[in-house]
Amino acid sequence: MIRFDRVSKRYPPGIDALGDLSFEIAERELAVINGHSGAGKSTLLKLIAAMERPTGGAVLVGGQNVGSLTRSSLPYLRRRIGMIFQDQKLLFDRSAFDNVMLPLEIAGFPPREAAQRVRAALDKVGLGQREKAMPIALSGGEQQRLAIARAVVNRPSLLLADEPTAHLDTDTANDVARIFMEFHRVGVTVLIATYANDLFPRARRLRLDHGKLLT
Amino acid sequence: MSIWLTQHLNALRLALRRLGAMPLNTLLSLLSIGVALALPAGGQMLLANALQLAGTTSTAPQISLFMANAADRRAANEIENRLRRYGGVKQVQFMAREDTLARMKSGQGLREVIDALPTNPFPDAFVITAADDRPEAMEGLAAEFRRWPKVEHVQLDSAWVRRLDALLKLGRTAVILLGVLLGAGLIAITFTTIRMQVLTSRAEIEVSQLLGATDGFIRRPFLYFGALLGLGGGVFAWVLVGAAALWLRTPLGDLVRLYDLTLVIQPLGTLDSALLLAFAASLGWLGALLSLRQHLRQP
Question: What is the ipTM of this complex?
Answer without folding.
Answer: 0.91
